[in-house]
Amino acid sequence: MSAETQPIIAIVPAAGVGSRMQADRPKQYLIIDGKTILQHTVDKLLSHPLIERVVIAISDGDPYFSDIGFAYPDRVFRVNGGDERADSVLSALNYVKRHFTDSWSLVHDAARPCVSLDDISRLIEQAQRHEVGGILAAPVRDTMKRSDANGSIAHTVERRGLWHALTPQLFPTFQLHQALMQAQQSGDVVTDEASALERLGYAPLLVVGRADNIKVTQPEDLALAKFYLRHSEGEK
Question: d(Cα 203, Cα 197) in Å, to the nearest integer?
């Protein structure tokens, strides 16, 4: 089976997502235009014609998830998440491995509802032709500073070749599962899926993504996400 014919399963780690939003609930359950951020994110993923289903890793005992609905409920599956992002992704990968022998797993942050379908298509097209897989990323445009222990500037960092890692990140399911398992067994902390592959010597592809693929982490991000989502309504 060629890479292009293998199913693509989206994974959304949403267990214990921290919030700096000054709200009474995790940020993925905050509302934008009548829908939670998680609904916006999942519905966007499932509106892409190449994504078969979404597996969401949710904290055991989460009181909010059961109260929300999705545009494609028969294609949304819940698994129990873990304390760390990698634990949640591994839990979802275990589900994917059981149900799809050969597949690609597309991991996307719950709090990135503004990802464009064009970006997802470009990632799938380029990453599936790459020997490892790839991630959406944005070149660093601003001057970068490294601080010292007192919060003062230690030095300026050369920005050439620096990228902001975004999601989705797309890898063959078995390969990603093995990489995350090995990192977990070694006690190594990996902050995204690409870093799990990197620690094994792989070099995932960087696929240029749009700057409006923001992650909602601060209260002011809600207004920006609302603007981008309204602007993208009717996207094909």
Answer: 7
Which of 142, 132, 218, 133 lies closest to 167, judged by CA?
A: 133
Element (H, E) at 144: strand 144-147
Sequence ranges of the domains in the chain: 3-231
3-class SS at 172? strand
By C-alpha distance, which of 8, 10, 29 is closest to 19? 29
pLDDT at 236 over 60: no
- Report the residue count for the chain: 236
Report CA Rg, the chain.
18
pLDDT in tens, 140-153: 998 889 998 989 99
- List the alpha helices (DSSP H) in the chain: 37-46, 85-99, 117-127, 173-186, 193-198, 219-231
3-231, CATH topology level: Spore Coat Polysaccharide Biosynthesis Protein SpsA; Chain A (3.90.550)
Instruction: Collapse the DSSP code of 17 into the 3-class scheme (helix H, G, I; strand E, B; otherwise coil) and give the result.
Output: coil
pLDDT tens column, 102-149 = 999 999 999 999 999 999 999 999 999 999 999 999 999 988 899 989
Average pLDDT rounded to a whole number, residues 227-236: 79
Strand partners, 57: 13, 79
CA-wise closest residue to 39 among 54, 18, 21: 54
Q: What number is the average pLDDT over the span 210-229?
A: 95
Strands 31-32 and 163-172, bridge-based pairing: unpaired
